[in-house]
Automatic annotation (TrEMBL), chains A, B:
TM region(s), chain numbering: none
Top-level division of the source organism's lineage: Bacteria
Protein name: TetR/AcrR family transcriptional regulator
UniProt lineage: Bacteria, Bacillati, Actinomycetota, Actinomycetes, Kitasatosporales
GO biological process terms on file: negative regulation of DNA-templated transcription; response to antibiotic
Region Disordered, annotated ranges: 1-28
PROSITE patterns the UniProt entry points to: HTH_TETR_2 (PS50977)
Length: 249, 249
DNA sequence: ACCTGAACACCGTTCAAGT
DNA sequence: ACCTGAACACCGTTCAAGT
């Protein structure tokens, strides 16, 4: 029943089959694989994950493509490692969340995640492509789940809240930075496009042209986030009314 | 200021530069480009957009790769056409929305969109990668905006509601069907993985392992959608309280 | 006028030969 | 034991030669 094939890079099985700590072989410095990932991320930020070439990466490292294969088994593995590397950049100040409500803390966490994605726009498709289960992905998931649980969410609702928030942030970022809209000034282009449409055929779109495009994306992100949190607030109230039990104090 | 380069396939400029009607040249039947897209979609459903090869497509059409270039300028253009083709599959029964509330109608629309994405799981990255401004994308946007406007939403709120819903559906689908989780049985794998984690290091994730993975994804989709609609309902109430004016009847 | 075989530059990947 | 030049199969794309 269980397949004997190599696990898909980025999948749970793949991460589980990796050496637990960053592959310290013998007494050599651990610079190797980290430096490759760091350089790959820098190149991806410049040209995009699609356009990144192993030859390009090898050149930047003053090496050859064959050498890269001593540290990972192909480009897919490299991209999975880079994706988790980016997740490791998300910084949520833990001291802040102490005195704050779950809602404030969730807002800070979602915006920290979104901010990190904004710093690596060309890498967003990497993050959106799969459920992040690398070490840094696990850490982020754990932190967010703990946040909800510690504020009285049931396990069930906490799990759903995490998934909904994660989907929203990555979904938003990929539409914001997808390959179809690489330039920031595309909003203006898009507005002109909506305006130029036949008002008879597209009355609503033409009327909403400005509102569809003029809103700063940061503000738009906040708006959708507030919608989700409003909904979560109601779900939590419903839950505590029906069951009357908080999971923990 | 304006660049003289070829517009990016899938961008507004690119769509605008295309022949408005499906390129009827002379009196030849319009089967050509449509048949290519149809065949490409079938192949993408089987092997994924990444693995689709122009040679593979040409073979399936009993032709050569060079012939394909007579109908579009490269693979990116083909993929943009396929993406809009998929959007054209979304069917929202218009008669249904007549007697329904905006909330019911929005639910039907979101689930129709989600259902279409579920029928083409391997093509989802195509849809998530950019703002859809092809003819079918425009049609869907127009329909949804009209829905909100006709139920008293302000233009501003309607635009944001559309964006939030669209982000949610595509964001959800890409996480559901991304290349990292191609198989349906991966949920079970993922649960085993969460359970196998060190409970000391990941107490919340281990505790929520079942809730993170056992929920049917269809139900999970509904849950997040309800959250969004709850939030929209509140935003609409706030809006009508403050302004006191409905846009139209 | 339209189609296409054959080539081109380049990709990810492999391996035998180096040190 | 570790590295890597050089090759391999194959990709998207082009163009001169066919009909």
């Amino acid at each position: 029943m269980a397949s004997a094939t190599t696990p898909v890079p980025g999948s749970p099985d793949w991460w589980a089959s990796r050496p637990p700590a960053p592959t310290y072989r013998r007494g050599r410095p651990p610079m190797d694989v980290d430096r490759i990932i760091e350089t790959a991320l820098k190149l991806i930020d410049e040209v995009g994950a699609q356009a990144l070439t192993l030859r390009m990466l090898a050149d930047a490292l003053d090496s050859g493509t064959a050498t890269l294969y001593r540290h990972f088994n192909g480009k897919d593995e490299l991209l999975a490692l880079v994706a988790d590397r980016i997740l490791g950049e998300v910084r949520v100040p833990p001291e802040e969340s102490a005195g704050k409500s779950w809602r404030e803390a969730a807002t800070v966490a979602a915006e920290a995640f979104h901010g990190t994605l904004c710093r690596h726009p060309r890498a967003v498709p990497l993050l959106a492509a799969q459920v992040p289960v690398g070490p840094n992905g696990l850490r982020a998931r754990e932190r967010l789940l703990t946040l909800f649980l510690s504020h009285g969410f049931s396990v069930r609702l906490a799990a759903r809240a995490y998934t909904a928030l994660g989907h929203y942030v990555t979904g938003f970022a990929i539409q914001q930075y997808g390959p179809g809209s690489p330039r920031p000034e595309d909003q203006v282009h898009l507005r002109g496009y909506y305006r130029s449409l036949d008002p008879a055929a597209y009355p609503a779109t033409a009327a909403a042209a400005d509102d569809l495009t003029s809103v700063p994306l940061q503000e738009e992100f906040r708006f959708g986030l507030e919608l989700l949190l409003d909904g979560l607030e109601q779900a939590r109230l419903r839950e505590s009314q029906v069951c009357g039990d908080a999971v923990e104090r």
